[in-house]
Amino acid sequence: MTISRLTADQRDAILAELPRWRLRSDGLAIEAELKFADFNEAFGFMTRVALYADKADHHPEWFNVYSTVHMTLTTHDAGGLSQRDADMARFVETLLPG
Amino acid sequence: MTISRLTADQRDAILAELPRWRLRSDGLAIEAELKFADFNEAFGFMTRVALYADKADHHPEWFNVYSTVHMTLTTHDAGGLSQRDADMARFVETLLPG
C-alpha cells in the first residue's frame, strides 16, 4: 500500500493545530521535546505510545534520558509526513497535561 | 551519596567481559547498538530495562527506532562510569539472545 505524503497545506494545518511540534529542518518529519516529572512518568508515557504504535504499525523515532523524551515522526513509505504522523501526534497530545 | 568512578582497569575489565559494549569516544560512557526482530521485541526489552532502572534509580540514555535500540550508560553523579553502569550492562546482557 502506498501512503500519501501530506501536502504543504495539510502539513501547515497540523503544525498550527499542534504547537508543541515543529517541522524538522529537512521538512520530512515533525519533532517535539517532551518533559515529564521523572523517569517513571516519561516511560509510562512511552509505554502508552508503544501500545498505540504496535497496533497502528506506525512507529516513532525517540530518544529518552530520564524525564525527557524527544520524538520524531515521519513515514518512510511516504518519503516524508503522512496522515499517520498527524494521527500519532494528535494521540500524543491526548496523553500530555495542558 | 558520592558514587565512585571506575578506575581504568575496572572499566577495561568490564569491556572485556561485555563485548557488545564499547567505550564512548570521550571515555565517560559505554554504549551498545542492540537489534531485535521488530518493534514489539525492542520495546518489550526496553520495558524490562525500565523496570530495572526505576528500581535501581539509575537510568539509561537510549534511542529507539523500530527494531533498534541504541543505549548509552553513564553516571552523572560520578562524572563518568560507575559500578551502576556495569551492573546495568550485565543486566541488559541477561535479556539478550546469545
From TrEMBL, chains A, B:
* Gene3D superfamilies registered for this protein in UniProt: Transcriptional coactivator/pterin dehydratase
Recorded catalytic reaction(s): these are: (4aS,6R)-4a-hydroxy-L-erythro-5,6,7,8-tetrahydrobiopterin = (6R)-L-erythro-6,7-dihydrobiopterin + H2O
**Which of UniProt's keywords are assigned here?**
Lyase
CDD domains referenced in this protein's UniProt entry, alphabetically: PCD_DCoH_subfamily_b
Name the Enzyme Commission number(s) assigned to this protein. Answer: 4.2.1.96
Q: Which Pfam family is one of this chain's hits? A: Pterin_4a
Question: Superkingdom of the source?
Answer: Bacteria
NCBIfam families membership:
PRK00823.1-3
Q: Which family does it belong to?
A: Belongs to the pterin-4-alpha-carbinolamine dehydratase family.
This chain's protein is named Putative pterin-4-alpha-carbinolamine dehydratase
